[in-house]
Amino acid sequence: MKALVWTAPNEIELLELPIPEPRANEALVKVKWCGICGSEVESFLSARRRRPPLIMGHEFSGVVEAVGEGINDLSVGESVVINPLMPCGQCYFCLNGQSNICPKRKLISMHRPGGFAEYVCVPRRCLYKLPEGLPQRDAVLVEPLANVIHAFRRAGRFMVDVLVIIGAGTIGLLSLQVAKLIYNAKVIVVEPVEVRRRVALQLGADLAVSPKEDDVVKLVNEITEGKGASVCIDAVGKSEARALSCKVLSPNGVSLWVGLHEFDSSIDGVDIVTNEKNIIGSYAYTDDDFKASIRLLCAGRIRTDGWVSETPLEDGKDIFMKLVSGAEGLIKVLLKC
Predict the structure, then answer these.
(1) Cβ-based burial of 195 (10 A; exposed 0-12, middle 13-18, buried ≥19)
(2) d(C-alpha 85, C-alpha 111), whole Å
(3) CATH number of the domain residue 38 falls in
(4) When you count CB atoms within 10 A of the terminal residue's CB, does the N or C end of the chain come out lower?
(5) Are residues 178 and 250 in the same domain?
(6) pTM of the shown model
(7) Closest to 102 measured CA to CA, from 269, 241, 310, 287
(8) With b meaning 16 or more CB within 10 Å and e meaning fewer, what string describes 98-122?
């Protein structure tokens, strides 16, 4: 089979490898589509959270090709989408409905081969049958959308008048669409790249501004008559983005940190304390979030026009190089396997 293998930092190759065989309670999946996540682009550069050699790719859908011993509720030929999180299922957090923060959790594409390949073996618990009406191409967005659904649940806010989203990549654009579905709120998107700001406006943003050209804090204060935003989502993960996500908040506002770009961040602690601002980390999703994501996509409520592009698996190496170089026309790239 063909597989896109990350062999070392800054190096990824299309190799010919044997087709794996499913073990007990695993299914062999013929991958149809696999999305490239920003976390994988960062891993490609730094090897901070993943270690090469590795087949990455954790946002993927496909068809069951074969089943291992112990699986009797999946048939060859069924369409599936993959939940790449593998919690232990036995610890306090798993038993408390917080499997996403299981200390022993594993991730397909980090701890075992992922979907940048024609075939991959997947544990049964990670396989969800695709409902009719949800194309395999669109099903690739189930995983990142589940992240967004979980983040909004973490926010715990029912009344939001102004919401700020920092970053108009995949998570930012999905957050924009979900925010418009659940809140009667003005949504401001902060993004330095012009083409991404245009896409954000097409998807319903009330305003899209550049942090390089505009005083974002001043702008938010003018719009809110000095109150600040109820919620801000940092979909970038850089220190300056996290700091900005706190500065634009109203007293008792919520800053949701979703981005994972940098480890260390500097924020104004006195402002956080004296204005009772809330910083909430949001990581991945639970099984319930994943199922909700499937339902939302199946209902046709999420638009992919203008920001999702496709390319063959064979061109994956070139695409990685373009993403690393910051090619402005690329937001979400799906590899067709």
Answers:
(1) middle
(2) 10
(3) 3.90.180.10
(4) N
(5) yes
(6) 0.96
(7) 287
(8) ebbebeebebbbbebbbbbbbbbbb
The β-bridge relationship of strands 85-86 and 106-107 is antiparallel
- Tokens at residue 305, please? 């026009």
- The region that residue 204 occupies, defined by phi over 0 for left and psi between -120 and 50 for alpha, beta otherwise, is left
Identify the CA nearest to 216 among candidates 252, 237, 245.
245
The verdict on 155 and 202 lying in the same domain is: yes
Tokens of 27: 């299914």
How many other CB atoms are there within 10 angstroms of residue 211's CB atom?
Answer: 16
**Dist. CA 4–CA 28, nearest whole Å:** 17
Provide the β-strand partners of residue 233.
Answer: 165, 256
Inside any domain, residue 295: no
Q: What is the residue-level pLDDT of the chain in tens, covering all 337 positions? A: 999 999 998 899 999 999 999 999 999 999 999 999 988 988 888 767 788 999 999 999 999 999 999 999 999 999 999 999 999 999 999 999 999 999 999 999 999 999 999 999 999 999 999 999 899 999 999 999 999 999 999 998 888 999 999 999 999 999 999 999 999 999 999 999 999 999 999 999 999 999 999 999 999 999 999 999 999 999 999 999 999 999 999 999 999 999 988 888 999 999 999 999 999 999 999 999 999 999 999 999 999 999 999 999 999 999 999 998 877 789 999 999 9
Residue 235 lies in a domain: yes
